Predict the 3D structure of the following.
Amino acid sequence: MLYNFKRRVCTRLLAVGAVCLAGLAMFSCSDEYNLDEEQPSGLNTIYGYMEKKGNFTNFLQIIDDLGEAEVLSKTGSKTVFPADDDAFAEFYASNDWGVTKYSDLTTAQKKLLLYSAMIDNPYPTSMLSTAEGPVKGEVCRRMSSLSLFDSVQVVSTTSDELPQTSFWSVLQSTHPEIVLFKDASGSQPMIHFTPKFISATKLESTDIDFLYNDPAGTRQSDDTYVNDAKIVESQFCKNGFIHIVDHVITPLDNMAEIIRKNSNMSFFSEILERFAVPKDSSALTKAYNENKGTDVDTVYVKRYFSDRSWGSGTTEATRVPLVYDKDGNTFDASLKYDPGWNTFLPEIFNNRNGMMEDMGVMLVPSDEAMTDWWNNGGGGVIRDAFGSLENTPNSVLAELINVNMLNSLTSSVPSRFSSILNDANLEMGVTEDDIEHVYLGCNGVVYLTNKVFAPASYSSVLFPAVIDTENLNIIKNAIDNLEYDAYLNSMVSTYSFFIPTNDGMLRYIDPVSYGQSQTLLWEFHYDDSKAQAARIYADVYRVNTDTWEIEGEKVKTITGGTGNAQIKNRLEDILDNIIGVEEVYDGKTYVITKGKTFVKCGGTINSEGSMTAAGSFQDEIGNELTVNGIYRMDNGYAYVVDGILMGTRNAVSDVLAENDEFQLFYQVLAESNSFAITDGTYCSASQNSTTSQNATRGNLVTVGTNSSGKETYYSLLNAFHYTVYAPTNDAMEIAFKAGLPTLEQLQAAEEYDAANAEAAETDDSVEETDSADHIRSIYRDFIRYHVQTNSIYLDNGFDTGTYESTKTQLEYQKNEDGTISQNSDGSYNVIAGSPYRITVNSVSPSGMTLTDHKGNTVNVVTSGGLYNLQAREYWLNGTNVEKATTIENSSSVVVHAIDRPLLYDDDQFIYVSRKVITDESVKQRK
């Protein structure tokens, strides 16, 4: 058990008197130790204490040889972690330096032994885990007295120690040897696990046993570990603290060096080292020459291409990605973080000093595990695609490395293995049995595993985009930067993913421009010289809406990749509508997407070159896309297609206007102000008679009143998928006979209201009337009951059952005695009930039957192709369609002709000629 510091100190101080005890109490209750100005009486110095103990000849000799005896013998503020001569005997018997006796130690090695075991501030064990504040239990790493220059090496450019890549081999022609910093973010930090840190982070004691490869139960409750040693005795001294450890402390390698040096990690190391690059620094070269008294022309730092690496400080803002080589060229892939980053910062940390709070973790398969996986296991899909490891692109291998790079040690110990997630954000399934050995590093911990934890992207529908780095890199870049990868990698869902090639990404009709005076086509391109997030750009052209070919010169170029709001918005629209969230099978034509649109599949299902796919735009113009590649993956099918599945330009009003059989229903929509036109106003009787049949019509809307009583238009459809049952002209005649006011009656009502309004101007006894508005309100309720809040196609795979309409049952608000409450102005208040429903009795590719709320049987008309007509309605930013730049929302709709109207109430065509006031929830209830 670790020596109990507090108990030992109290015993010693009792021996020297109460005054010293009071002095110690003062220091033990405070985080400030001003030992440069105040010397506790009755205590020895750090040097003197070891000298008196008599078993520290090796450590004292190092102190003497490095000229530090005076510092450690006098006033100061140090914490030292010395090992005694017995521990040094064990060190000489076995170490990585090949040193067998003291005389073998070089000056550089002596510096590593002393300064890695010393901190330039005084800390008792109880405060090793205390951060500035003070905040207790937060710290597991802190900088030792090591200098950045204590561990720099001079390396031959032909040495096996350097990565065998072109980045490094080019140095052979200019330098026989180089000065190389394995990292320049700082010298190797010291790690320590104290009882307070373990308690504050809620780790289990057995987690620490695991990290030190000890049997469970080895650690005692007050044990404190420093690097790979344990403190066995502590002493408060005049000039600081001394904590005697049971092993000689040496600087810990960073994770990258642990992996490189381990002979059982060579397979994985070979992959990792492909991401290493030498970076030169004029500032570091100057500092090195001043420190060493040399005149070296260039010193180099070993860096790794990564999304997170060191910058000029320790704040989140200075965690900068490394994506460029020394010539300014971008690398084709990057790691999650730099594994050689000594002062590694976790993803989440406090702003006091993030380096101190946590470390990283890497899961590294043994060579045996990697070889078996590559030849006989899941790695076969990569081997089959590229033939050899050497031919496998870096971007493909980055997927493997990144899933094994964990961001937090405190979240990746055995008691929390269930919280380790893969690239699909699902539990990775790590167990203690999977880990053969643990290696402590200065910036993290390496777990040597006996199995390969492969990324989900190697077995998910994302796989084709992962491996085809030439033809699918535009959509892959969008997926990565917009974080759709976890979604596509999920193994709890089934997908049909329609992946557009780079050539296919050259034709995207911009939905924002559908309602504008000029329709635009975007060509997406890829610039691999840019940083990952900025590689996609778009050339914009005008397009002829008859031929859908480009007209004229390029309008503009939009750059900035997914960091540009417009590009990000369009790529999200594309991704949402090419990811089918169910599986395609023979006999099912329409597949719903993540964006609630539908993909129409045809040809020979799951047959390359014979299967077709169409978005509602391709369905509209009769131009299906060919499926040229099919991949059966663990979570569905991936289909490589020669274009983007796009949404139609047609709103519901367009679909109705273009078919004569819907003329009467369309006119009811128009006369009730139920859809917008191009200029943002709404159709009325006069506008409808003068507006060209080819004018752009907008979204379905419903009319309500806002809180100030002003008439306001609200979207009837809202970010979902719907079915519109459109009565044919014959069915509308049935509705008129049932009591729906005719268009002629609406016209007569308008004339009547106009006459009364004119008379009221000169005759106070005449009241203005709003009978035409009453009729329009009846129309709008009639329309809402023909809109169903789920898309159902005449196809296989759609469910029968009862579905909600967008018409809500309104109930009059009543008084306590049950009578209807009436306002002083004669209006009524209503409250919203449940929506009226429509029952789908049967649905198949050959037909659909419905039952309305009144019990009438209604059939979808299958003659004349008046079914499965697709529409899509968009909501854009701003109020001016011509100036809109982004899609804010959209709805997809399927329209079917029906042979009779849907009715919900015997009294639905009766209107009480008093104003009915409703609140927002009633007006927008679906």
In short: The longest helix spans residues 743-760. Confidence is low (pLDDT under 50) at residues 1-33, 312-318, 678-695, 912-926.
